[in-house]
Amino acid sequence: MNFLRTDARIPWYGRLALMLLPVLLLGFTYVRKSSELEATDRARLMPTVDKLVDAAKKVALPIPAPDRESERRKELRLERQFLIYKDTVASFKRMGWAAMVILLAVPIGVMMGSYPWAENLGRTVMVILSMIPALALLSILFLTLGTGEVAKVALIVLGVFPVVCLDTYLRAKALPREQFFKAQSLGACELELPWRVVFPQIWPEVLNTIRLNLGVMAVLMIAGESISAEAGIGYRIFIKFYRTTAMNSTIVYVIWLTLLMFLLDAAISQWIKQRYKWLAGQ
Question: If DSSP codes are grouped into helix, strand and coil, which group holds residue 153?
Answer without folding.
Answer: helix
